[in-house]
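Here is one chain, start to finish.
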Amino acid sequence: MKSLKPSMRENKRYLLVKGNVGDIEKAILEAIGILGMSKIGLGWIKREKDAAVISINRESMNDVRASFALWPSELQVKMVSGSLKKLKK
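Its structure:
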């Protein structure tokens, strides 16, 4: 099968999220539902006790930030980047 052209691929953004890592999926699912969750394309890059690096679709950045703001416990987006290398600096 032929690979996709770069212009056809999904553009990702990487988020450094502080807070309870177990609540990230719950917050997104509660705010925008199952269909919205599939459009986000959530991917786990790195998990720690109180922080995580996730990847999401570029177009859904505002939806993810809004779902973190609506969640009762504290979930903060500390940094957003288009590449993992810049995020880790």
